[in-house]
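Reviewer 2 asked us to include a model.

Predict the structure of this chain.
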Amino acid sequence: MTKSLDEQAHAGIHGLHAYVPGKPIDDLKRELGLSSIIKLASNENPFGVAPAVKQAFADFVEHGAADLHRYPDGGGYALKQKIAAIHDIDPARVTLGNGSNDVLELTARVFLGPGKNAVFSQYAFAVYPIVAQAVNAEVREVPALGPDADMPYGHDLDAFIEHIDDNTGVVFIASPNNPTGTWLAPQAIEAFLEAVPPGVIVLLDEAYLEYQADSERPDSRALVDRFDNLIVTRTFSKIYGMAGLRVGYSLSSAKVADWINRIRQPFNVNTVALYCAEAALADEEFVRYSIQTNAVQRASLARELEARGHHCLPSQANFLTFDCGRASTPVYEAMLHEGVIVRPLQSYALPEHLRVTVGSEEENRVFLAALDAVMEGE
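Predicted model (structure tokens):
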């Protein structure tokens, strides 16, 4: 008998819901007729793209656009060489992605599937279950630490170990974690890797690593040498302000990188993104400015929110997650009318929490004024 379309789509797909990104500025302009909007919903760099990237983009338009009818360098040779030099690693151990999300999906396609399971924390990045279920793997959500823990809602690595079995293919951990901002101590990550069976892939998502205090950062480069089952992912979207260009990468053993590259689409990073990412790596001044300013503004914003009675989760990222003391979705919706876009966390099972990107000093001031207006108006 001929199968229906519903029957052709596997069980994992039926259980999925599409990822919903932060509301775009243009959508809000069309819907509400607003001309001045501040978006603090997607953890983008409030200072825009790195100046070196702007210059590289202009140079490309002037000198390189004539070659846009050609396919990109499928192996990303030049960019991989620069990434490898920065990390003092063999380029064969670098994998490029269309954003680090691409590497998450590639990892799932190689190491997960029917009969396998993926392990990740409650309140972790929504893409982890998406990429696992997309290949019809079982998902195992590990309960997070409680609200009164030293790292409230953070990863409980001891509980992770209890969820790993012979069918576990990938363990996803993030430090700092989105959407909570929480992080893992370097020694905790190392001890966890020592406890995980060597045949289980551990993907350490470091999308927000640059915003973390130096003393809190693990030496993930050294860990990649020690643990063949470790994949470390990084992105150009946050600190370099290149979210719209979509470039990320991973460091791993050469064997794991080879397996991933066997299924990676040969032109997954476009020519302009490759060119601009090379330039970004040299813009150390912009990186330092973004890190230092974020630290100052994050602390200031947290103090202001706490003074208003909105408890903030500890964060080492470029955003804060805080408790509204009421359902956050109506607060989010009301703030849209004030011209401020933030992120409600109902979809992350944190129905009374909002996540706000740390903006510039002026953007944070406007956000707080809008929050006050909404809270006072209810």
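The domain at 52-280 is CATH 3.40.640.10 (Aspartate Aminotransferase; domain 2). The chain has two domains: 11-40+284-377, 52-280. We have added this to the supplementary material.
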